[in-house]
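for ur thesis appendix - YkgJ family cysteine cluster protein. copy paste whatever u need, i formatted it the way the template wanted (i think)
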Amino acid sequence: MAARSRSKTGKAKRSLRRPARSGPALPLASPAAQREALADRLSRERMEAFEAALRPQGESSDHPVKALHDAVREAYDVCESMLDELQLDPPPACKRGCIHCCYNQVAVTEPEALFLGLHLLGTRSPERLRDLADRARALTNGLRGKSWREIGMIRHRLPCLFLEDGGCSVYPARPLACRGWNSVDETMCLRSNLSQDAMAPIENHPIMRQIADSIQSGLLRGASSLGLEAGYLLMARAMALLLADDPEQGLIDGTADWLDGKPFFGRKTDW
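the 3d part is after this line
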């Protein structure tokens, strides 16, 4: 029964209450849509964090090289923290000593390449840097003129530049492409390498790759928004450029040039 109330004239009036509707609930976003939303958020957050870290804030600002290092380190920490929180079924089969995916050539952004260069500068002797420079140049010469697809099709014959003594020699500074790649079945990876079939299926969790790819995209967008050279690079080529001539000085000068907005990685070379 409708409730009654009194108007200002004292006459009774009927107060009609609209019955609550019990219509269909809004559909939940699909897993793919949820992953896309997460990717957009991660990319935007890392872009803004990178911009904030490298944009001068006055005399108290960090040195640009330190700011670059810390911004990339923070991005890697965010990636690792998110990957560690995932509860995946089946769990990834990746483990220490497994190097099947190290027979590959990965793409890096400029911030990642420079972070890796700074890591090398702090962990390798001049002699080891010169040896690495020679190997980077030889690898890059062998890939000259090949497209990304062509390189991908022969990846099983191309061990990573940093695959040494049966493991990753730069593991703490490895790029995001390596952090996000995963497999749930090691035998699939082994069969792929033994057959040298680049199209062999390898079951994996897309969410892990999407997290790493989105953070990498954020670094790229952040660099671009600051007017810095920004693009995807073949890691071997990036290292060859950074280590050219005098490797130690090359790493220092290359980082400084990039931070000054010069097209360091895009410059022409004779190799």
